[in-house]
Specification:
By secondary structure, this protein is mainly alpha-helical. It has a single domain, classed as Arc Repressor Mutant, subunit A (Orthogonal Bundle), CATH 1.10.10.10. Helix content is 39%, strand content 4%. The protein has a two-stranded parallel ribbon. It starts with a helix and ends in an 18-residue tail after the last helix.
Length: 97
């Protein structure tokens, strides 16, 4: 993935409003050629101390991925007022844009 495409992805992630989420695919559609998988890859490559709201990026079905940061992601989303259905699903009403 080119540095320019990765920068586009990170710019879009930075724009996701507090209390909202978006999907890998929606971010990809806003770029010039990224796929949802590429967005996921870019998110996994975030450097430490990046400050981006990574926790606001989820899969298209609204389900939080089962990964090492899942507990922290749930905590951050709840702190922003995102109500989860069950333990790991975000209602579509919280999706941006």
């Amino acid at each position: 993935m080119s540095p320019e495409l990765k920068a586009q992805i990170y710019t879009i992630v930075a724009r996701v409003p507090e209390g909202r989420v978006t999907s890998y695919g929606r971010i990809a559609a806003m770029t010039e050629g990224a796929t949802a998988r590429m967005v996921g890859s870019a998110m996994r490559q975030l450097p430490s101390g990046h400050g981006l709201p990574w926790h606001r990026v989820i899969n298209a079905s609204g389900k939080l991925a089962d990964h090492a940061g899942a507990v922290e992601q749930q905590r951050l989303l709840k702190a922003e007022g995102v109500n989860l259905e069950g333990k790991s699903r975000v209602p579509t009403s919280f999706f941006w844009p």
